[in-house]
């Protein structure tokens, strides 16, 4: 006998794919690890600007820094993109348009690059380190690019200077790079032991390891009135308050 089960429509799964805060499809689904509720990344981070509680169940996520309790759900993101035709393309186009519109213009450098026919990218510091292999030059080349400055944050109250300044503080990389990757980069360049923990901060606030540079720039740098460029991130040994 042939199966008589009815076909499911996309709207049948909307309850699992929509954000409680914006009511739209989940974009960069981000789960609160304390209660496992999931929201758009931008929505939940904006909510945590004013509250430390989950907007859905009201549980206190963290006493001081709820952003540390967020994790991206890449599997759910792929499922949503497969179920909703054209959603991925629309989001990528909107992201591209945002970066084109909000690309910092410092002393006319971007206009001059355009006149000279150079790539119109964010920043112009050269993200590759001196000892990088040439065959990696095209890695993430088509991603939106961002320039950052990595500064060693001192005066942490620790008796020993366990971390030092980088020889090359200015780098340019994909805006999709996460804080976790920045930490790995710092550990490699500073030759730190694998067990050594670092904090990465922007404007004095510790950033979650899953935050992308794009996200930090939009929510912690640009929206807080910082007009200087490149974006400055600070790093320090992790402080144990326990």
TrEMBL record:
One GO term in the molecular function aspect is: zinc ion binding
Q: Which domain of life is it from?
A: Eukaryota
Q: Which Pfam families does this chain map to?
A: RAWUL, zf-C3HC4_2
Q: Which SMART domains has this protein been placed in?
A: RING
From the UniProt record, list the coiled-coil ranges. Answer: none
Segments carrying the region annotation (Disordered) are: 119-139
Q: Name one GO biological process term.
A: nervous system development
Domain RING-type residue range list: 19-57
Subcellular location, record wording = Nucleus
The terms describing its cellular component in GO are: nucleus
How it assembles, according to the record, is: Component of a PRC1-like complex.
| Protein name in the entry | RING-type domain-containing protein
Origin organism of this chain? Pagothenia borchgrevinki
Its taxonomic path starts at: Eukaryota, Metazoa, Chordata, Craniata, Vertebrata
